[in-house]
Design goal:
By secondary structure, the protein is an alpha/beta fold. The strands form 3 sheets. A 6-stranded parallel β-sheet has the order 9-8-10-11-7-12, with helices on both faces. It has a 4-stranded antiparallel β-sheet with strand order 1-2-4-3. Strands 5-6 form a two-stranded antiparallel ribbon. A hairpin with a 7-residue loop joins strand 1 and strand 2. The protein starts with 18 loop residues before the first strand and ends with a helix.
């Protein structure tokens, strides 16, 4: 029970947001402060999308943040620890704003916003950008892509601005997917003429002759993740047509030798499996009106000799801070696959992953 005579905080109204909010605060001794917040949304027609099928979005927020949510009409009441209630409010407001903007809301978007709200800044303050509409997005033929983690915001800004971008971090953080989406966006708007996707075929030592089939059959197994990202951002018939015309090229790293890649968006995936010589060869292919994105996880090196032989680590150590080159580092908190993937990364790589 609340202490006798305890006063609740006055309701706060933000005129810039399409909601009204009523906040009450109960201080319990010696436990943490308890809070009750009521939010009123002014467009009831979108609440079905906000809540999700069988209220699955509300249930996900309750389970992840440890709060109780009750909905009646266009009003939502949230109860729980004050910090958790604040995070739940930010997530619901963020989802609502995205729906109003016409963006798709799926399970991944809900989990991403929960993750962003649940992650404090270095000062222990909840990130402010959770409840506000994203300031950066990538538009492709099939979808509009918005950031799903805190680090994806500066990464997407860098993809649209810098000449060469190093994206470092664990699987599932969107490094390659967002790079492909930005490349597709620039290809369809005509700011580049070609999209070139590459990765080292480490498992076969880049000697592919013993594999069955023609050259495409030999290298496709290694390049499948790049195809998946393409088909998710372009209609299938456009992917096939652009590959046939040479607008989209998918090739192993060894095929980059001797070329100058001008008017192109070039992506190197799994870059931790390059040698320093291969990385230097790749980076020096850079041509006029081009952009390069180098993606990799420095902790997943498959080269003989381990990570001290990796061309990715060598290049970052030499080039970080050079004008026109940016380095974006993701960690386990930025994983946007199933939440259990982030926990697996932390278990393998430690709490600082």
């Amino acid at each position: 029970m609340a202490k006798k005579g305890a006063k609740g905080k006055k309701p706060k109204i933000n005129p810039n947001q399409p909601i009204t909010e009523n906040t009450g605060l109960d201080v319990l001794a010696p436990g943490p402060a308890k809070a009750k917040v009521e939010i009123a949304f002014d467009q009831p027609a979108v609440l079905g999308t906000l809540f999700g099928e069988f209220d699955q979005n509300l249930v996900a927020i309750e389970n992840r943040l440890g709060v109780y949510i009750a909905a009646r009409g266009n009003h939502i009441q949230i109860e729980g620890n004050a910090e958790d209630v604040g995070q739940a409010r930010d997530v619901l407001t963020g989802l609502y704003n995205r729906i109003i903007q016409g963006q798709e809301i799926d399970e991944g978007a809900v989990e991403a916003l929960i993750g962003m709200a649940h992650e404090p800044t270095l000062d222990g303050i909840i990130k402010k950008d959770v409840a506000t509409p994203p300031s950066v997005m990538i538009r492709t033929r099939k979808k509009t892509i918005v950031p799903r983690s805190a680090t994806q915001v500066p990464y997407m800004e860098s993809l649209a601005r810098d000449d060469i971008i190093f994206a470092l971090g664990p699987a599932g953080t969107g490094k390659t997917y967002l790079a492909v989406a930005q490349a597709v966006s620039q290809l369809i708007t005509g700011s580049v003429d070609r999209l070139i996707l590459s990765r080292p075929a480490v498992e076969a030592g880049e000697h592919l002759g013993f594999l069955p089939g023609d050259m495409k059959d030999k290298v496709d197994p290694y390049l499948r993740p790049l195809y998946d990202a393409l088909y998710d951002t372009l209609p299938a018939e456009q992917v096939e047509r652009r590959i046939a015309s040479g607008e989209i090229e998918i090739a192993p790293l060894a095929f980059m030798r001797g070329r100058t890649l001008a008017d192109a968006f070039v992506i190197l995936d799994e870059a931790q499996n390059t040698t320093p010589a291969q990385m230097k060869m790749f980076l020096t292919r850079f041509g006029m009106n081009s952009r390069m994105v180098v993606c990799g996880d420095p902790k997943q090196v498959d080269l003989p000799g381990g990570d001290h032989k990796s061309g990715l680590a060598d290049a970052v150590s030499r080039l970080e801070g050079v004008d026109g080159i940016s380095t974006i580092r993701f960690n386990a908190a930025d994983v946007v696959r199933h939440p259990i993937v982030g926990r697996i990364v932390k278990a393998y790589e430690g709490p600082d992953a």
